[in-house]
């Protein structure tokens, strides 16, 4: 095992390979507060990549209802329990040691899936990444427990009629949008004995070389998010490829410019923002103040990684839901939850403008600038005065040219009283 630095955990950790980092890394932010679980993203991915024989139960993108839903079912709960069995009571954070970008959330003192694997021996010896193979029935229902809420503890089928106001609801559920996180330290890469899985050096997208894959399903076992999937008709594994022809800007249908993936571009709820972040040689994020992803993750810290405790340093980030009990959210997103929700509830002037960029264009946004507008509203939030300005936010493409311009207040358009099918 090599020693690599994981900035999400605030410390070095063990990983089977030495750190190797691209100059740019594919990343995305999802705003859970906006998702309506329409599954448009899911079907956009399905109709593009996994519509063939043997792919019937492949859902590279899925939206699951938490706390009970999951695809495969129980994927996160099972792995958390496995880590706890290896290291009882040790999965704790020390948020007091946080210091800026190197340790933004403090220091995680528990075990990652790579460190826990060294303590768990099977017939083949120690694993490279702690994991498990879900049985077929756990792959059978991608929408299991959809819209099933969490009610009163210990009282089945009883909803809590009280506590239906922020900051936490007594009865609650939320939608979790998932695809491959294209991790910096992927569990699938660590687990594959054939070295058939790799990160592309140009953008950090994780791919499977199907000419090398022999269908051992170690990637399925080793990925904590269960995003590689085995295809029985070809006897090899497949996974989300981040629609890399669109990322490369080589798709003539989108104007030969870097373009968002299919699931992102189809999002009805405007919850998604994706792009490329620049990396330093040591794998840390290079300061890029006006990249919207850098701003949301590193400056405002309103977007948090999903289960960073697994140790893969995922490149998928989430703005947590405001109404869910904080203990549950901290288990999922780490100790930055309180700060993230506080900032999202009463957003700064700049944050409110950047949030308007979500799903405004299929073209990838590399940076932004803001033109100030007039004050249009003021109120009190959590006992403090809050003001809203109708600023204009401008998204810029890879070449620095404007690709989108929108305002904080949604504009109104008067349609002419003419219709194409009128007589």
Automatic annotation (TrEMBL):
Cofactor(s) this protein cannot do without: [4Fe-4S] cluster; [3Fe-4S] cluster
PROSITE patterns listed in its UniProt record: 4FE4S_FER_2 (PS51379)
Keyword field: 4Fe-4S, Electron transport, Iron, Iron-sulfur, Metal-binding, Repeat, Transport
GO molecular function, one term: 4 iron, 4 sulfur cluster binding
Protein's UniProt keywords contain 4Fe-4S: yes
GO BP of this protein: anaerobic respiration
Gene Ontology CC terms: cell envelope; membrane
InterPro entries: 4Fe4S_Fe-S-bd
Span of domain 4Fe-4S ferredoxin-type: 26-54, 170-202, 204-233
Classification via Gene3D superfamilies: 3.30.70.20
Record-given protein name: Nitrate oxidoreductase subunit beta
Organism, as annotated: Candidatus Schekmanbacteria bacterium GWA2_38_11
């Amino acid at each position: 095992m090599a020693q690599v630095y994981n900035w999400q955990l605030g410390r070095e950790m063990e990983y089977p390979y030495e750190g190797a980092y691209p100059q740019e890394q594919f990343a995305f932010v999802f705003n859970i507060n906006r998702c309506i679980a329409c599954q448009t993203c899911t079907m956009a991915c399905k109709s593009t990549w996994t519509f063939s024989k043997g792919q019937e139960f492949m859902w590279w993108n899925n939206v699951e209802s938490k706390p009970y839903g999951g695809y495969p079912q129980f994927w996160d709960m099972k792995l958390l329990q496995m880590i706890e069995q290896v290291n009882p009571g040790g999965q704790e954070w020390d948020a007091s040691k946080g210091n800026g970008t190197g340790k933004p959330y403090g220091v995680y003192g528990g075990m990652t899936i790579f460190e826990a694997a060294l303590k768990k021996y099977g017939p083949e010896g120690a694993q490279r990444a702690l994991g498990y193979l879900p049985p077929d029935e756990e792959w059978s229902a991608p929408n299991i427990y959809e819209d099933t809420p969490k009610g009163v503890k210990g009282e089945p089928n009883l909803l809590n009629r009280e506590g239906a106001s922020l900051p936490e609801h007594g009865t609650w559920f939320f939608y979790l949008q998932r695809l491959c996180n294209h991790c910096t330290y992927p569990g699938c890469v660590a687990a594959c004995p054939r070295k058939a899985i790799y990160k592309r050096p140009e953008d950090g997208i994780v791919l499977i070389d199907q000419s090398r894959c022999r269908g051992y399903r170690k990637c399925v076992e080793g990925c904590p998010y269960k995003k590689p999937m085995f295809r029985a008709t070809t006897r090899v594994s497949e996974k989300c490829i981040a629609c890399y022809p669109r990322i490369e800007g080589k798709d003539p249908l989108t104007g030969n410019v870097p373009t968002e993936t299919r699931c992102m571009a189809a999002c009805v709820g405007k919850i998604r923002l994706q792009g490329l972040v620049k990396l330093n040689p040591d794998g840390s994020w290079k300061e890029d103040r006006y990249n919207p992803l850098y701003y949301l993750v590193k400056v405002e810290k309103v977007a948090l990684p999903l289960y960073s405790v697994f140790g893969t340093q995922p490149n998928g980030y989430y703005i947590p839901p405001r109404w869910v009990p904080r203990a549950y959210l901290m288990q999922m997103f780490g100790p930055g939850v309180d700060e993230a929700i506080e900032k999202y509830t009463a957003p700064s002037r700049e944050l409110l403008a950047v949030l308007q960029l979500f799903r405004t264009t299929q073209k990838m946004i590399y940076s932004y600038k803001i033109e100030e507008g007039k004050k249009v509203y003021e109120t009190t939030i959590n006992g403090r005065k809050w003001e809203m300005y109708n600023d204009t936010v401008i998204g810029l493409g890879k070449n620095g040219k404007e690709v989108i311009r929108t305002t904080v207040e949604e504009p109104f358009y008067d349609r002419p009283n003419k219709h194409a099918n009128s007589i």
